[in-house]
């Protein structure tokens, strides 16, 4: 293994497996989505999925590039502090289970705005909710597109910025195709398949890494710390000392924790999944399934991150395209010995990760398009009297616009850590969406003015603070 290696695996094998994953998922999308031309079919898959199916799809929607690439990289470089993302993302589902899932399914139809406008003035509330939905979806899309660029650039040996931009553009076009062809039903099936493959792949890495260290987690963490200190003095200490990254800013640590825990229950693409089941009981059952699968996966990321630090090393990871985001693919390559077996295993794991990104961006795109077409076009511009066929056409056109914007945004954000980018979406969701949802569901005196001020106040304050944060403004 060379410390300055900048490519992994064999490009032709990697691209072949990518193509196989794309073709298989496209065939599935086409087969399951025949005849789904109505709004209910396009937005929610006709509400025909069981709690178990929807729970697996939620896991597929939620376990994004941030979960697999971003968190593994954060743990590899920051240890316990990187694990904070996993803990926050998982604990957040308790909020969704206990406070949001059932009442949301009872009062909603397609979008978050359906819930918020249930007993409020329709137009101002829907407009505010739609704007917030589009903002959150855009930040989340940035993370997925950046992750796609990192992953494909790494596996194809692409280092030039122009080539990486082309990769992100291809992902955006594939996302548009998935949604236009399959709608929510096709997207849901892809998410279910992807969730199973991702958890199996991460599980194999989990047991393989632990087996390398005698199934002793303490030995693994000690080896990661020792290798970190041998490469960069003191870097290994960061892995084992909690708060070494976030402890210097206690207010920032508290803010990040709150955003991660409360953000999930306000994510529009997660909320929309509760409408794909036939009843509130199935919505609650789907969250239970999602918690189990997501919890197992985040347990895997702890070992994957420390395994990458111990087996690959921070110096090698940092030399790869995507830097910390390349930790998990690098681990898959070097774990079997960096020979033919490593090349094949890397291609398979990365193909699963690529399918992960495609499924998540498709879910985000359909959520954003539904919000614009159903809430802005139909409810606000057409006073709720738009022809259903026209509404779906507007939704499909919106997908194209969103895809183009996501391509340019992903290009601009391609060098940032994916888990960090997702945390921005969580911050906006926790600030703008969740308070208004909870107040609307549980406070009878909550009114239209409160809803609008809650959404705009949270959205504007979050965006302003993000813009003036060191991560954005620092040279």
Strand count, sense and barrel status of the largest sheet are:
none
Give a count of the beta strands, DSSP E runs of length 2 or more.
0
Order of helical and strand elements: HHHHHHHHHHHHHHHHHHHH
> What is the global morphology?
globular
Query: Which blocks of ≥5 consecutive residues have pLDDT under 50?
Result: none
Structural class: mainly alpha
Strand content: under 5%
* C-alpha end-to-end distance: 34 Å
Mean pLDDT: 80
Tell me the number of helical segments per DSSP (H or I, 4 or more residues long). Answer: 20
* Helix content class: over 70%
Radius of gyration: 21 Å
Structure description:
It is a single chain. The chain has 475 residues and is mainly alpha-helical. The chain contains 20 helices and no strands. It has helices at residues 11-32, 39-44, 51-62, 65-78, 80-107, 112-116, 122-156, 161-212, 217-231, 235-240, 250-263, 268-271, 280-312, 314-319, 327-334, 340-381, 388-412, 418-442, 448-467, 470-473. Helix 1 (11-32) runs parallel beside helix 16 (340-381), helix 11 packs across helix 18 and helix 15 (327-334) packs antiparallel against helix 16 (340-381). The longest helix is centred in the middle third of the chain and has 52 residues, at 161-212. It is globular.
